[in-house]
Amino acid sequence: MRELADRTGFTSEQIEHLHRRFKQLSQDQLTIRKENFDSIPDLEFNPIRGKIVHAFFDKRNLRQESDGLADEINFEDFLTIMSYFRPIEMNMDEEQLDRFRKEKLKFLFHMYDSDHDGKITLQEYRNVVEELLSGNPHLEKESARSIADGAMMEAASICVGQMGPDQVYEGITFEDFLKMWQGIDIETKMHVRFLNVDTIAHCY
Amino acid sequence: HTVTPSTNVFALTYCGCFHLYHKLPSIVPESCLLILVGLLLGGIIFGAEEKSPPVMNSDVFFLYLLPPIVLDAGYFMPTRLFFENFGTIFWYAVVGTLWNAIGIGISLYGICQISAFGLTDITLLQNLLFGSLISAVDPVAVLAVFENIHVNEQLYILVFGESLLNDAITVVLYNLFKSFCQMRTIKVIDIFAGIANFFIVGIGGVLIGILLGFVAAFTTRFTHKIRVIEPLFVFLYSYLSYITAEMFHLSGIMAITACAMTMNKYVEENVSQKSYTTIKYFMKMLSSVSETLIFIFMGVSTVGKNHEWNWAFVSFTLLFCLIWRALGVFVLTQIINVFRTIPLTFKDQFIIAYGGLRGAICFSLVFLLPPAVFPRKKLFITAVIVVIFFTVFIQGITIRPLVEFLDVKRSNKKQPAVSEEIYNRFFDHVKTGIEDVCGHWGHNFWRDKFKKFDNKYLRRLLIRENQPKSSIVSLYKKLEIKHAIEMAESGMISKVPSSVSLSDYHEGKIKPLSPAEMENMREILTKNLYQIRHRTMSYNRHSLAADAGEKQAKEILIRRRHSLRESLRKTNSLSRERPAAANTKRFLSLPKNTKLPEKLRVRNKTSSRVGDSSDSELDAATTVLNLRPRAGKILRDQRLRPQRPLPEFRVEWKNEVDGSQDGRGEQQEPSTLPQPSIGFRQPLLTRPRFGTLSREDLTADHGPARPMPPPRLVRQASQGDRQRNKPENQPY
């Protein structure tokens, strides 16, 4: 327990709370599979549900060296994923903050980059936007597509700026991604409160 | 009789001149100068007429001068940020004001007990009353000062939100202590009644505001035939909410704020663009005028015989105000930091404490004191004036250097972009999802729930054409419209590219975007964000989104021209797979949007006058290429969905298309135009942008190397005057 706390940065109280939740989700098994996430009712309405669930099983997020998708995750992995959403602490210094920020952004990056090639290509971006707007039945695919195109182009201009006439913009790399999020302090926004709240029993 | 109006005119023209000298607002907040002007005027009037100049009537202030300012502030408040920080704001407003009021009251009472100061006749209750009216942080003053210093939005919203919400407390305390002063005996039950009264006042005010906001939104749902009076409804209902709340002795400020925030969400979608602009500008105008008048009157009212000076009382008042404010913020922050995920740092706390400016509200409240019950009223007036002057002048002037010295995080001036909107949305969903997985009901959960409720019931009821909206898409639409307008508005500056030059273009050449162009595009994007979530980056009374400049439009047109070349050339390469090419600029897609024709028509009227013949020619050609596909799409949509039909603009398009081409078949053709968009670099894979074409169609159509569109373009150009003016300018 102690080493879990040290590694992921949660307090023991939070770990307990999350453990309870883990048990609920896994139905008292040791590991969670993708199907277990189906039991969360509210997640159904989330347009990017697929990506979120996928992110839990993404080996890159789980800090494993290999690539690809895990079939099931245990509690430790669960905690690892959740640790991306820890709020910042007052006593963090610059370097820690920076690392923290990079980690969070990396998590987001992996969500965009579904084919694991380290770049967000136009197709992947389009995919994201289409999913985002999928909750809206009145929107045609072309709108989503054109929006994605426009956004991609903005990204290109931020990241590469002046491009030569023969350059092709391959995709958004992680460094470019970082650049784009520079103005936004993600470390303050990307957090979930892990207060000791009674778990809402979503799955029975 | 003529004095007061001439005063006003003078003051207002002065206010205008003030902004002409640019450096001044950065050093001295406008409120200071206005008070000085008021003092000057007061002195003149006093000298001329040998009697006290007209004191600002409390009625005038509360009924006419204050509502516009609060309305303006409430309407343009960033609601999302406000609600995210609502707990903190509420905490500061309620507990903070209570703390200040009681603290100042009691300590002043202690001072008064010291007989050396000659203040022993001021009772505890009177002190408490004085404390309650002087602890009110004033939204007018806060706005006036914070407007120029551009601190980050979070800090701004904390101070400003507090100043708005503490009105409830102030009203309750003020009335409570006033009635206590007039009562013989006070029972415990009265105190509890007072506490209950607070809830009634606050919540009642908010409810009235929300109710009337809904009524206003509902009314505007039916006003599409009488667009001209739409702004009137907005102002009427908000003022009505204020007056109603005041009538029931509830908090008028909270009512009008709630009303403005509610209205904003729904009315914006119901009213026409012009009405929206009118509302915006009129509101800003009213609030500027009110603010100016308030400060000038404060200056004028200072001069006169209303004063009684007592060193001890005045100086200790000032001292206690500062001390209790600082203490209060510090202690409260320690408590609220436990509940916040992002704790407030010392710097933040300092700015919050320092930003607690007093202003015209305490001024008017002190004038409202009944002199019969308060024999030392003049003393109170003097003390209030000193405190106000101190906060406005000293604190107002020094806050800017302090902010810079402390290196407080400033507002993020980065221009928002579509990609950012996408990220933010994505983000919200991720957070909500994680919260769901966690089983935790966080902020996002509630916001999600509210959104669902909103979409299901409220929007259907209150909005005329209710289509589920995505902020991303609406942002996108808006920027497209804006772009289209600009395109239509300014003429092209260069000639039509001839077919020769077109064929010269080699494949694979991409026009690079210069930073300047990017900047321009970003500017355009920003302008349209005024209506989307992150709308006011930092509240500024005096500037709204700037209008597009000439130069910018020309830049766009340069890009457009290049893009045309690109697009025309690229049609044959469409069939080829391009590796994730992302170099597309914005695309002009126009999903069902009925506002466009109106505007375009207006705009292009002016444009056809401006610019020489070559301009309008290419402009026409451009817009033809630009909009025709959309026209085709719009027409198709018309058939598919029962829409509010576009005005006759559409018909003209159709005629034009049919008339000048081979009819239906040709109508397909423009759609094959890959990108009538500005300067994209490489075509994207499938560009059936306008709804109908699939890849197969495209590949089928473009067997020959020579792209189809150029003939059209060339033809337009070469056909000269016949084609030039007739169809193109017709739809406009």
Automatic annotation (TrEMBL), chain A:
One of its GO terms (molecular function) is protein kinase inhibitor activity. Pfam families: EF-hand_1. Belongs to the calcineurin regulatory subunit family. CHP subfamily. It is a lipid-anchor. The gene is TESC. Keywords: Calcium, Cell membrane, Cell projection, Cytoplasm, Differentiation, Lipoprotein, Membrane, Metal-binding, Myristate, Nucleus, Protein kinase inhibitor. This is Calcineurin B homologous protein 3. One of its GO terms (cellular component) is lamellipodium. InterPro entries: CHP3, EF-hand-dom_pair, EF_Hand_1_Ca_BS, EF_hand_dom. It comes from Ficedula albicollis. PROSITE patterns: EF_HAND_1, EF_HAND_2. One of its GO terms (biological process) is cell differentiation. It is found in: Cell projection, Lamellipodium; Cell projection, Ruffle membrane; Cytoplasm; Membrane. The lineage of its organism: Eukaryota, Metazoa, Chordata, Craniata, Vertebrata. Residues 100-135 form the EF-hand domain.
TrEMBL record, chain B:
The chain crosses the membrane at residues 27-48, 60-77, 89-112, 124-149, 155-177, 189-219, 239-260, 312-339, 351-373, 379-403. Residues 495-603 form the Sodium/hydrogen exchanger regulatory region domain. It is a multi-pass membrane protein. Coiled coil: none annotated. GO terms for molecular function: potassium:proton antiporter activity; sodium:proton antiporter activity. The keyword Lyase does not apply. Pfam families: Na_H_Exchanger, NEXCaM_BD. GO terms for cellular component: apical plasma membrane. Its main location: membrane. The keyword Coiled coil does not apply. Residues 567-579, 651-667, 694-704, 721-732 have a biased composition (Basic and acidic residues). It is found in: Apical cell membrane. Residues 567-617, 651-732 are annotated as: Disordered. Keywords: Antiport, Cell membrane, Ion transport, Membrane, Sodium, Sodium transport, Transmembrane, Transmembrane helix, Transport. Belongs to the monovalent cation:proton antiporter 1 (CPA1) transporter (TC 2.A.36) family. This is Sodium/hydrogen exchanger. It comes from Ficedula albicollis. The gene is SLC9A2.
